[in-house]
Structure formats: structure tokens, C-alpha cells
Amino acid sequence: MKTHRDVMEAWFERVWTQQDASAIDEMFVPDGKARGLGPNVLIGPEGFKQFHSALCSLLSEFVITIDKSVESGEWISAVCSLRAKDRKSGAAVLMTGSVMIRIVDEKLTEGYNHWDFIGLFTQLGLLPSGTFEKALSGERVY
User: Fold this and answer.
1) Would you tell me which CATH number, out of the four given (3.40.47.40, 3.10.310.30, 3.10.450.50, 3.40.50.620), belongs to the domain 4-85+94-115?
2) I need a surface site. Which of 1, 7, 62, 98 has the fewest CB within 10 A?
3) Could you tell me the sign of the dihedral formed by the alpha carbons of 71, 75, 76, 79, in that order?
């Protein structure tokens, strides 16, 4: 039987590195919920595929590593690093984050995601440089 870390690593490899959207259907239960990937909860493979498609349109050459992880029952919590390339410029980007995933029968059923999208979008030139610092100081970012 695979560990939860094995399942997560397979998910990262197939869904992101290989950009295989069919793996989402295989590895994410139909009524699964993914939180933290936008303003709404993503429900099931179809909901997740919309997010996957949008991120894949911005980035290529994904490599996601699990830097630290802890497993307890059906849950795995992990600190991760995403390295990829900006599709427009080819520049390398790095985003860090953490996930808490519930896995049942080697399938993802529920996920809580906390990724540094502000940092990623700043690296991609989609947000002004210093966005985080300006917002933290109370300055409006335009």
C-alpha cells in the first residue's frame, strides 16, 4: 500500500510535471473539495481542472517537491516548493506553500491549500513589484 506521501508525489508528478489532466479524474474523487485555490471551493475533478488549465497556461516545466510532511490517519500535511518557468518569458519562478490533504483509498478527497500566489504573480509581472510590502504597510496597490 502506498503512503500518503507517495500518493501526493504521484499527484504532483502526473498532474503538474506531466500536465496530465486525466490524472485528476483518476486521483481526485468526484465530490472532492479543494480550498485555497481561489475565492471559491473547487468541487470534484471538473472544478479542479479549471484551476489546472489556468495555471498551466501561465507556467511550464513544473517541479513540485515536498520539503517537509507529517501524516496522521487519513491526512497528510506538507510544506512544498513549486519551481516552474514563465510561459511568456521563460524565466524561472519559485512558489512555496503548504497543503493539508485527506486521502482515502489512495485518492484525494479534501484539500486545504496555502500557496504564495502574490509572490508568484509578482514574479510573472502580473502584480507590481513590492505588492506584499505595500499592502502590509497599508498602502493601496494599483
Assistant:
1) 3.10.450.50
2) 1
3) negative
